[in-house]
Task: inverse folding
């Protein structure tokens, strides 16, 4: 089975990101494919490289990038949602002259079309909302 | 058959709105705060499950009735394979 | 390109931040991709349909105005829950969009027929 996952909730403010990560881990462990994980609304904030997770909690940004690298799937962060929440890559940082780029390596800034693309190509869409 | 995923407690409309439209053969999966809905009755022909880790986290192990089995992430994935669409009630 | 049946299930009222407008944007993009898009306003989501929304004072874009684009993007399967409208005292006369009202049984059938449901 090929899964598209949508994550709408911010890490540490809701369980959305954590629940989605556990689902993705279980799906890949069972031999399924992840078409893409699409972060939208507040979910984009997991891609902020300045997140410092407490030692006794999950380091969600790092756990996502590790799983995505191991199983070769994309962590897609919606550009419209990310700009307004301060998650910018170098291109956008230069375009809008913000103080610094903040996108964590391993996440990609993409357009909304990539959500639709994932839904079209996957067998299943699972949404993790705030 | 549809998999309905509910992540809000009974004080929220999510479970009520979900159960108003479930069909026999559908599955309702309680995750996150949805596990507080363990005692809500479901229509005939509808199965309900609760995520084990979310139940344990909240100390609800003794408060989920026996007709609501606890499942793990692997079983969640299986349910998602066995059902479509997957509707999140948040 | 594969055309999938994709339902947007909109249950949140507008203007608690950007969520409602962002969901609308994702809906319109999905329509551009030639997918068979349906929209169902249910629970507090029916408040997105009210006429005369004016969020200019709170510094955000109008969801009501944005919904007018649905017909431009050929999104014609636009539904609202009869029960949700009634419970909130929203008669169709207060609704600014051409919607078909659905009862619970019709909503069940709508959901069951989808390839994917995007919640918003």
Result:
């Amino acid at each position: 089975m090929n899964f598209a996952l949508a994550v709408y909730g911010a890490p540490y403010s809701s369980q959305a990101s954590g629940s989605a990560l556990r689902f993705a881990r279980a799906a890949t462990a069972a031999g399924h494919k992840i078409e893409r994980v699409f972060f939208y609304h507040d979910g984009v904030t997991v891609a902020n490289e300045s997140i410092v997770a407490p030692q006794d909690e999950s380091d969600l940004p790092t756990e996502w990038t590790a799983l995505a690298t191991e199983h070769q799937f994309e962590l897609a962060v919606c550009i419209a949602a990310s700009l307004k929440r301060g998650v910018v890559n170098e291109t956008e940082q230069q375009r809008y002259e913000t103080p610094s780029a903040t996108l964590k390596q391993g996440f990609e800034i993409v357009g909304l079309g990539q959500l639709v693309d994932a839904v079209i190509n996957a067998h299943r869409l699972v949404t993790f909302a705030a | 058959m549809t998999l309905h995923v509910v992540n809000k407690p009974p004080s929220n409309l999510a479970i009520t709105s979900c159960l108003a439209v479930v069909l026999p053969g559908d599955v309702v999966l309680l995750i996150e705060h949805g596990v507080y809905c363990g005692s809500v009755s479901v229509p005939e022909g509808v199965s309900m499950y609760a995520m084990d880790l979310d139940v344990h986290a909240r100390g609800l192990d003794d408060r989920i009735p026996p007709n609501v089995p606890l499942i793990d992430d692997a079983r969640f994935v299986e349910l998602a394979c066995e059902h479509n669409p997957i509707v999140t009630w948040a | 390109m594969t055309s999938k049946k994709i339902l947007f299930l909109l249950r949140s009222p507008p203007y608690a931040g950007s969520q409602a407008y962002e969901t609308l944007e994702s809906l319109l993009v999905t329509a551009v991709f030639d997918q068979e898009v349906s929209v169902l306003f249910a629970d507090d989501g029916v408040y997105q349909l009210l006429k005369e929304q004016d969020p200019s004072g709170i510094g955000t874009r109008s969801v009501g105005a944005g919904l007018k684009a649905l017909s431009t993007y050929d999104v014609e399967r636009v539904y609202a829950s009869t029960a949700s409208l009634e419970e909130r005292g929203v008669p169709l006369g207060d609704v600014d969009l051409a919607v078909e009202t659905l009862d619970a049984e019709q909503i069940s059938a709508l959901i069951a027929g989808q390839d994917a449901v995007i919640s918003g």
The beta strands of chain B are 3-6, 27-30, 47-51, 70-71, 86-89. The two ends of chain B are 20 Å apart (CA to CA). The mean pLDDT of chain B is 98.
